[in-house]
């Protein structure tokens, strides 16, 4: 079992930055595919970024060049650095993980989830 706890959300003006953290306990996090999803009010949960066990990264087109996902195996934590934030980035951001080497962008394929952290970007 893996328990995930997100932190770092908040209110920021457009153009600003935030760094989200996802701390894992229970297992060595680096052996999992780790991903960030987000869900805005009235919308489906959508893929944001992922990092594999080999540190391969994948990004949604909407955040490419602005967001960076990274992992710290010593701290068993994955981060999402978000720069040049836009109002349309406003959502609850969720950290998720699954065993295996394959990164997928489908929420249903991830079996470990954090509680979510709110990110609000004002215009």
List keywords for this structure.
123 residues; mainly beta; seven-stranded mixed beta sheet; four-stranded antiparallel beta sheet; globular
Provide a short characterization of the protein structure:
This protein has 123 residues and is mainly beta.
Any overview of this molecule?
Strands 2, 4, 5, 6, 9, 10 and 11 form a 7-stranded mixed sheet that branches. A 4-stranded antiparallel sheet has the order 1-3-8-7, with no helix packed on it. The mean pLDDT is about 95. The protein has about 120 residues and is mostly beta strands. The chain has strands at about 5, 10-15, 20-25, 30-40, 45-50, 55-60, 65-70, 75-80, 90-100, 110-115, 115-120. Strand 7 and strand 8 (about 75-80) form a beta hairpin.
- Oligomeric grouping of the chains: single chain
Helices and strands, in order, run as: EEEEEEEEEEE
What fraction of residues sit in β-strands? over 45%
Helix content: under 10%
* Overall pLDDT metric: 94
Given helix and strand content, the structural type is mainly beta
- In the predicted model, the low-confidence regions spanning at least 5 consecutive residues are none
Radius of gyration: 13 Å
Distance between the termini: 40 Å
What is the general shape?
globular
> Number of helical runs?
0
